Fold this sequence. Notes:
mainly alpha
Amino acid sequence: MASSKASIDGNINVTDDIMDDAMDDYMSMTIPESPSNLTQFETSVQRRGRKRREAESRAHQASKAELAHQARLNRDEALNTSLPVSSKGYQMMARLGFKAGSALGKEGNQQARKEPLGVFVKEGRAGVGMDRERKRKFEDDTDRGEGIQKRQTEAVFRERQAREREQKRAEGLCWGAMRVLEEFESDDTTTDKDKADKGENAGSSTSKATTAINVLWRELVKDRDEKERLRRMRYDLQQTLSRSTAHDDPDEEKQDRQAWGTEEEEIEVQDPELDDFNRLEPAERLRRMVEYLRENWRYCFWCKFQYPDGRMEGCPGVTENEHG
């Protein structure tokens, strides 16, 4: 009984020691602080949303554009990365004398490349060299377009020059037709005394009597009168000015009086009929003159001949082209 009690007492003592040690460990134990993201409990709705997003992320398949973009990024990263020392290519070059940062080939070669050639990745399904062919065709089309535009500009310029030459020629023919008309009209309407005084009165300015002349050759008279007036004015201005302005010579010509200021110059009369006629194209004015000569004077401007009757037998036609 003694031994049994002793054993019980011993167990009790051992148990007390263990409990004391456990209490010491519990009191000295430190509990780490929980992260901030765990301070809040996850609800069932949040958990379902998180699991759904994770499932969608795992099930997502990248598109062709995304895969191509990622492939380009990986390729550029690989090209910008130096050859690692552990690679077999680097080890083979090292055995041949290559050193990092130096160029391949013979030492001292200034033309040797220190960087690898740039990689051009061909995109698309066109054959090799197709891009150069397209570029060449584009340049040819551009040159062809510039050539066409240049030829069109030259054609417009040549056409304008030809039209200007034709107008200038028609203008010259109009003056010739007006001289012929003046000869016929003057011979028919003027007397011998008027013909004798024609040279004296040629320098007078345009008056109301000028508007009575046929409009087809009226411009010729106005132009001749204007030229004569300017000639007389230049001549008078070259004379001496020593004469008094109060001097009055009754026999002095009209142009001299105007030059000396003793008589006012006649003001040119407006002629709207002639202005309208001059606005026509030279070819149209010439056509009217030619037809007027044929109808009223039986004269062919192109044949340079006055026919005896209105039938004008022997004349090829009215236009210049019909006369060859």
